[in-house]
Amino acid sequence: MKQKDFNLVIVGVGGQGQITLLRILSESALISGYDFKASELHGLSQRGGSVEVQMRFGPKSSKIFSPLVSQAKADFVLALEMHEALRALYYASQNTQFLINDFLSPIPGQGSLSKPEILKEIKKFTKKIKIIEANQICKEKLGKEVLAGIFLISYSSFKNLIPLKPNSILKAIKKIIPEKYLELNLKAFELAKSF
Amino acid sequence: MEEILLNKPGKKIILLGNEAICRGAIESGVDFVSTYPGTPASEIGNVFWRIQKEFKKINPNFHFEFSTNEKVAMEAAAGAAFSGLRSLVAFKHFGMNVASDFLLTLAYSGIKGGMVILVADDPSCWSSAQSEQNTRFYAQMAHLPLLEPSEPQECKDFTKFAFELSEKFKIPVIIRHTTRVSHQSAPVLLGKIERAKKEAKFFKDPQQFSTMPPRVLEMKKELFEKIEKIKEIAEKSKINKIYQGKSSLGIITSGVSFLYAMEALKELNLKLPVLKLGFIYPLPENLIKKFIKKLKKVLIVEELEPYLEREVKILAKDANPKLKIFGKEKEPIEGGRIWKERKAILPAIGELKPEYVLLAIAKFSGKKLKFDFKKHLEKFLKIKVPPRLPIFCPGCPYWFIFSAIKKVVPLENVIFGGEIGCYMMANHPVVKLQDYLYCMGSSAGIAHGISKMAKQKVICFIGDSSFFHAAIPALINAVFNKSNPLIIVFDNQTTAMTGHQPHPGVGKKPEENGVEPIKIEKIVEACGVKNLKVIDQVAQQEEFQKAIKEFLEKDEVSVIVARHPCLFVQKK
Asked: In CATH terms, are B3-236 and B241-381 the same topology?
């Protein structure tokens, strides 16, 4: 890893597993010997609200102080839902890599946006955009949409979008995911490898 | 085995700030933990609830409880500490309001063992409906030591230090943190779990535990003397840190703000001296004076009201009258407006963000920023992202209460009183049944005043956990002083909003030494309410509507207990 902090933001809606994903990435950073800070918000997440978690990590020589990513300072944004990708643009610059789950969750009573409308806005900030139908893929191949998050962080690692090695992600998944769900989650990891 | 209970000194594990508080208490050999759930402090209760059985193998006398409210939780924790034990009580900032009646007296008497009071403030109101508070002022008012950690490792270390300080001076010690500390995770170095054998015994000592004039004023004097001694400790304590720099400009900061300040200095490649305060009350005044003596300008980086800034202004009068002090503006401004105003100041409303501190330090030190944050913000604000407001889960039993009300109540003529819990989401545009919202227990208290004097009908909502927490006195008041609100108790058999903790209405599980549920309807009946019905609003929809209609016509207080379990309770 280059001698610099890596700033990561995960956005989505309640129930998509952001906090579990953050714990896996944190554990993976610890295994990799990085200094890191992570920030999660609890409270209304179970009630369909937006959920945003963040992590900053880097080599031990560069001490990480703030748990929060600064405005326009994200290196990587994982958006588990498309509207939420827009909210994460606060952290985006032309250097920010977006990985977006091709999934729209309507916003009741507030007027939702379409996929082209959303992408048009994101492109004003960065051209580094990858879109994957992770919900669709996980539903078809594994029978569960909720695995999209694990699939996408594994994918990010395999494709070098984040400086955390697949092996450390795998170890972290085994530590964080409870026994009874582990097999399915490991399948999501493997699926990302071959994708 | 739960990782948080590992007795492996030297090992590093990842902990959330709140979990690190728990670990600090565990390493300190805590005997008693009480709480009332409230985010951003909820995890502290949840952790002890989960590990209590396993922790009892290490400390057989350990007791954990969800108390009925924060005042009771604090009183119980004090009782344990009066008996010579170490106790921890934890809650969010509103909890301090509830407990404050007891707190101010407790400061006078002190304790026998060790007692730590953990308060989680919530700048920006991420999970708080009622208000944004700064608990530092309570410490000043009550004359109780207050420590402020900035990251998980400090959460653990400060908790251990707080127990030692508390036990040494026989005084409760407050640890105050904020959302970005309580919900910040990072590697934490474990220490040893101590297993001191202690016997709990209350020794009669009215000199210490009974307040009354003239003794009470002597006690106040003793408290002041304790604080003077603790101040001496604060002056030398490693809990405060000075980061040396080469400049006549300096920074004074604490808590999460310290992290943002250090990040900004790193980014700007600046070497300013930084004083990080862990002791917020009593303040190490000599240390601060020494720090500001050689400075020309100082920037105070802190969240919410300018607490440290005011203190530094007072100290500078003696130590360095020419010192220019920067911090908050006279008129408090909201965080997001900072870029637009282009000023080297910090907001007094809402939490700080790293970029606010970066801009403030850049302006303060005359450094130019390479990046145009203002332009970026303007570009971002042009995007119209519809807000995702929190709403009841699909299938939530509360939906049936609202739909029944909408069917049978003349909405324009009735006032709807809200309260704290999931049902405060009745303010959502699709429900819109909330004409006022204050604190727990207040919906019925206010309803009494309105219905008594304005002669308008009030339907007020009270949650089941809320009912036990603070609603009973308000209910009795409405009966005793004769008014006619219709109270609907939203009984979903759990404390849902904060993560499904139990409450007295559902009793205790056998593994927690099983206690029979305390029936809300029996309490209501005992309060003298004649119009009372318990109805499952999902299974008996028509009956529920009929009851509302009937009770709306009553000239006395009426109560409907709408009992149907939360979806998450049903799943368990």
From this structure: yes
Report how far residue B275's alpha carbon sits from residue B252's, in angstroms, rounded to the nearest whole number.
Answer: 5
Domain residue ranges in chain B = 3-236, 241-381, 398-571
- At A108 the pLDDT is 75
What are the structural domain ranges in chain A?
6-194
pLDDT, tens digit, for every residue of A58-105? 998 889 999 999 999 999 999 999 999 999 999 999 999 999 999 999
**8 Å CB contact of A42 and B371:** no
> Is domain B3-236 classified as CATH 3.40.50.970?
yes
Which listed CATH number (3.40.190.10, 3.40.47.10, 1.10.645.10, 3.40.50.970) goes with B398-571?
3.40.50.970
Name the nearest CA neighbour of A7 among A43, A46, A57, A44: A57
Q: 3-state DSSP helix/strand/coil percent for chain B, to nearest 5?
A: 45, 20, 35
Residues of A in Cβ contact (< 8 Å) with B262: 63, 65-66
How confident is the model over B320-354, as pLDDT tens digits?
Answer: 999 999 998 654 444 445 545 545 578 888 899 99
Residue B411: CB atoms within 10 A of its CB come to 11
Report CB contact under 8 Å: B151, A37: yes
Q: B56-101: per-residue pLDDT in tens? A: 999 999 999 999 999 999 999 999 999 999 999 999 999 999 999 9
CATH class of B241-381: alpha beta
What is the distance between the alpha carbons of residues B184 and B255, in angstroms, rounded to a whole number? Answer: 12
Put the strands of the sheet holding B249-253 in their side by side order.
Answer: B241-243, B274-276, B249-253, B297-301, B324-326
Pair of tokens at residue B211: 């307040």
- Supply the pLDDT for residue A45: 52
Using the Cβ of A61 and the Cβ atoms of chain B, whether some distance falls under 8 Å is answered with no
The residue in chain B having the minimum alpha-carbon distance to the alpha carbon of residue A89 is: B380
State percent of chain B over pLDDT 70.
Answer: 97
Residue in B256, B259, B393 nearest the CB of A47: B393
A6-194 has which fold? Pyruvate-ferredoxin Oxidoreductase; domain 3 (3.40.920)
